[in-house]
Write a structure and sequence with these properties.
The chain is α/β, with parallel strands linked by helices and 382 residues long. The chain has helices at 3-10, 30-46, 50-68, 81-91, 108-115, 136-140, 165-174, 194-197, 223-226, 266-282, 284-304, 329-338, 360-371, and strands at 18-19, 75-78, 99-103, 123-127, 147-153, 178-182, 201-205, 217-221, 308-309, 322-325, 341-342, 344-346, 349-352. Strand 3, helix 5 (108-115) and strand 4 (123-127) form a beta-alpha-beta unit.
């Protein structure tokens, strides 16, 4: 079986539909579907084996750690990206009179945990975009000796703008601030080395680049900041969860498992394990190269066809999302849907996001469909 045939078999939805919504959610993969089904079949027939499920959870922590070049003791299983951002925003030592730096391009699920700190007397500095980019110097200019955290997406959800995390980490660390990264749009799609970059905390859900569906995700917290984070949701070390408690003593995991409170989503863990296997089996570098090639073609041809694309031209600033404007984006997305091409609308723009299951032939078909769209093109950049 060729690689293309394997991928189409792995994502059966993409056999009849050109699916460009990976920035929203990736379609179900066969291996993830089979893993979750096998979990429930086993539970249905044999009852719960929690020790076995906990071993699977540890496999996931280890696999995710390998994916981002972390230690497995620095990774935890969470429900979604927002939970991880909340662990950071509420747990870091950020007090009245301190400030945090974030941007106007963040998804609300990322920016709300930071904005909420205003209720505690924290200054939240929101850096505005410049034509849908975030110049590094503009973000850095807001960091000072009262900055306790810089909260930013690796890849912005609207147009795929990719931030220079390494330089942000360097500048943040100069004043003792933590770099907290929303990586939902990049993990599994773009190679990430948290050690080489200097990320302090990274959070991502599993339903995009990890193919795992909603309600499951992963958190990375470096050893350098782990012991400084106050636990907001408290639960015992799972090893001792059924023991009678010696009241003067609280026993918490020495690892990032301390951030996992109560029962885990074992079905989601089985799906996430299969999704991680799929990502690492293909290779993130190969996925990134494939997605970039298709995105290049789509962006070049949209622009040459007269569409105003708000995704950056510079390759190093792009994360595999192409966003453009028309007079009526909802109408255009419906027009594409009638041609069995799935895209979506974000903030009044049409957004498309190719992935490993898409082909260059599909990209060509998409461009031809856009050229035939009867609506009027519209300029967005003032």
């Amino acid at each position: 079986m060729s690689f293309d045939d394997f991928i189409k078999a792995e994502f059966p939805l993409t056999k009849d539909i050109i699916y460009y919504e990976s920035a929203r959610i990736t379609p179900p993969s066969k291996s993830v579907h089979d893993a979750i089904r096998a979990f429930y079949d086993d539970l249905f027939k044999n009852g719960e084996d929690r020790d076995k499920y906990d071993m699977k959870a540890q496999e996931v922590r280890t696999k995710f750690a390998k994916l981002i070049n972390a230690d497995s003791g620095e990774t935890a299983i969470i429900r979604n990206t927002t939970e991880g951002i909340n662990i950071a925003s509420n747990g870091l030592a950020i007090n009245e009179g301190d400030n945090v730096v974030t941007t106007s391009m963040e998804h609300r699920n990322n920016i709300y945990p930071w904005l909420y700190l205003r209720t505690k007397g924290v200054e939240v500095r929101v850096v505005d975009h410049e034509n849908y980019t975030l110049p590094l110097e503009k973000v850095v200019s807001q960091i000072d000796d009262r900055t306790r955290a810089v909260g930013i997406s690796h890849v912005q959800f609207l147009n795929g703008y990719r931030s220079d995390l390494k330089e942000l980490a360097n500048e943040s660390h100069k004043v003792g601030a933590a770099l907290v990264v929303d990586a939902i749009q990049s993990v599994g799609k773009i190679p990430i080395d948290v050690k080489e970059i200097g990320v302090d905390i990274l959070s991502c859900g599993g339903h995009k680049g990890l193919f795992a569906g909603r309600g499951i995700g992963c958190l990375y917290c470096s050893r350098q900041v782990m012991d400084k984070i106050r636990l907001v949701v408290v639960a015992p070390d799972p090893e001792y969860r059924h023991d009678m408690q010696d009241l003067p003593s609280l026993q918490f995991p020495s690892s990032a498992k301390r951030f996992e409170a109560g029962s885990l989503n074992y079905a989601g863990i089985h799906g996430l394990s299969a999704g991680l296997d799929l990502v690492m089996g293909i290779g993130v570098e190969k996925i990134h190269e494939h997605n970039t090639e298709i995105a290049d073609y789509m962006q070049d041809n949209l622009e040459s066809s007269g569409f105003d694309v708000i995704t950056p031209r510079e390759r190093s600033q792009r994360g595999g999302i192409i966003t453009f404007s028309t007079d009526n984006p909802d109408e255009m997305v419906e027009y594409l849907k009638n041609k069995k091409i799935l895209a979506n609308v974000r903030n009044g723009f049409v957004r498309v996001s190719p992935h490993i299951y898409n082909t260059m032939e599909e990209a060509h078909e998409f461009i031809e469909a856009c050229k035939g769209y009867p609506g009027r093109k519209k300029s967005s950049i003032q």
